[in-house]
Automatic annotation (TrEMBL):
Organism from which the protein derives: Streptomyces spinosisporus
Descriptive protein name: Phosphomannomutase/phosphoglucomutase
Alpha-D-phosphohexomutase alpha/beta/alpha domain mapped to chain residues: 12-137, 161-261, 267-375
Family: Belongs to the phosphohexose mutase family.
Presence of keyword Magnesium: yes
Length: 470
């Protein structure tokens, strides 16, 4: 790749990470250049790297380590790990870090999630743009700079036991009542981390797909898609389990299923965990992104906390966690952020909080969670459009004529009334608009959803007879 003029990594470098297909978009030579650029951009003298179970991950991670070491950084490789374990390593060792994973994407994908020392995020506005520019120049043939320090070392270190001990120090789960928990690892990294974390917890784990296999032979490791939790729902009912947990491929997200096999929304999980942490930290700030349920800020206010609404995306939320000193933050995509976990997201700590909440009282999960599931919602609906910007503007103009509506532009377009709201925002990487709708009742939800979708799918032209007021 070094002799190609005009290298453009637009398709590979996303808003928050690096992600693409192997080897046509990402190979070991590019990984080496990313390692060098990471050190040059961050100025790090020492970094930590980890990787998931994808077949391409070990070689890509090792190439990155060599590129970083050549620029003078000492590299600690922790090997197979979840993304939140890599954040833990970066936080506890106070080192910049890089995790090789493509999260829930299919097997042919891989990528890099990067952070600065203390697990601080690296996104487009916090270094990723500069990293991309350097890699493009070097891949096109420009010589790398002379390193600031002599050749760095590459050493190995196992962080799994320390990671598990840290999580268990943050949540009291050792005195919970006996629970049976089905866990679907999706052949991802929670197949390694769940046994390490839960071996001292007095619960029975029923494992599904714990074998590490980056080809994902059973289903995609993306629990956000309802098709991928069908096996978990069935197993919860068959084993008469108290709850089910599903993790994505790199195990930084956790989804919850109740004893009936019904999915618990990530917004409800956010509200439940917020209630627990506000009991221990009265008056604290809790973050929620703008597509979480209205129930989240309602619960936070009712319990004396301060809710702060944020954009979607981990870079924004981690920055706000630091700025506001928030105790917790939640996204409707099932990313959960904790002040006691270096402001980083960890699905495993969220799972432990759910287990502790359930196991410390006698009610089933469906009853425990009911106060937090207040409003029906559409879930995220993606629509391919030719021109996202003009369609978004047309939707804005259409709803501006409504009485009693308010709009904001924090992330895409949010239109609100006392009885419903929707958010319509463009994808960072594809010509898509993403719609989320919530309302006080199902008929209103259906009407708002259908009206917005009709506008989106006709390029902003309203369909006759479909107008709906307030």
């Amino acid at each position: 790749m070094n002799d190609r003029p005009g290298v453009d990594l637009t398709a590979l470098v996303k808003a928050y990470d690096v992600r693409g297909t192997v080897p046509d978009q990402l190979d070991e030579e590019l990984a080496r250049l990313f390692g060098a650029a990471f050190v040059v951009t961050t100025g790090a003298d020492a970094i930590v790297t980890g990787h998931d179970m994808r077949p391409s991950s070990p070689a890509l991670a090792r190439a990155f380590a060599h590129g970083a070491a050549a620029q003078g950084a000492d590299v600690t490789e922790i090997g197979l790990c979840s993304t939140d374990e890599l954040y833990f390593a970066g936080g506890t060792l106070d080192r910049a870090g890089a995790m090789f994973t493509a999260s829930h994407n299919p097997a042919r994908y891989n990528g890099i999630k990067m952070c600065r020392a203390g697990a601080a995020p690296v996104g487009q506005d916090t270094g990723l743009r500069e990293i991309r520019t350097l890699v493009e120049r070097w891949a096109a043939g420009e010589r790398l700079p002379e390193p600031r320090r002599p050749q760095g070392s590459i050493t190995r270190r196992d962080m799994l036991d320390a990671y598990a001990a840290h999580l268990l120090s943050l949540v009291d789960v050792l005195a919970v009542r006996p629970l049976r928990i089905v866990v679907d690892a999706g052949n991802g990294m929670s197949g390694l981390t769940v046994p390490a974390v839960f071996r001292k917890v007095p619960v029975e784990i029923v494992p599904l797909y714990f074998e590490l296999d980056g080809t994902f032979p059973h289903h995609e490791a993306n629990p956000l898609d309802p098709a991928n939790i069908v096996d978990l729902q069935r197993a919860v009912r068959e084993h008469q389990a108290d709850l089910g947990l599903a993790f994505d491929g790199d195990a930084d997200r956790c989804f919850v299923v109740d004893e009936n096999g019904d999915a618990v929304t990530p917004s409800a999980v956010t509200a439940l965990i917020a209630a627990r942490l506000l009991a221990d930290h009265p008056g604290s700030t809790v973050l929620h992104n703008l597509i979480t349920s209205r129930a989240v800020p309602e619960v936070v206010r009712q319990l004396g906390g301060t809710p702060v609404r944020t954009r979607v995306g981990h870079s924004f939320i981690k920055a706000e966690m630091t700025r506001t000193h928030a105790v917790f933050g939640g996204e409707h995509s099932a990313h959960y952020y904790f002040r006691d976990f270096y402001n980083a997201d960890t699905g495993m700590l969220a799972a432990l909080h759910v287990v502790a909440a359930l196991g410390s009282q006698p009610r089933p999960l469906s009853e425990l969670i009911r106060p937090y599931q207040r409003y029906p919602s559409s879930g995220e609906i993606n629509t391919a459009v030719t021109d996202p910007s003009s369609t978004l503007a047309a939707v804005r103009d259409h709803f501006a004529a409504y009485d009693g509506t308010s709009t904001d532009d924090l992330d895409g377009l949010t239109v609100s009334t006392p009885t419903w709201w929707f958010n319509l925002r463009p994808s960072n990487t594809e010509p898509l608009l993403r719609l989320n709708v919530e309302a006080t009742d199902v008929p209103t939800l259906d009407r708002v959803r259908d009206e917005v979708l009709a506008l989106v799918r006709t390029g902003g032209m309203p369909s006759p007879g479909r107008a709906m007021q307030g």
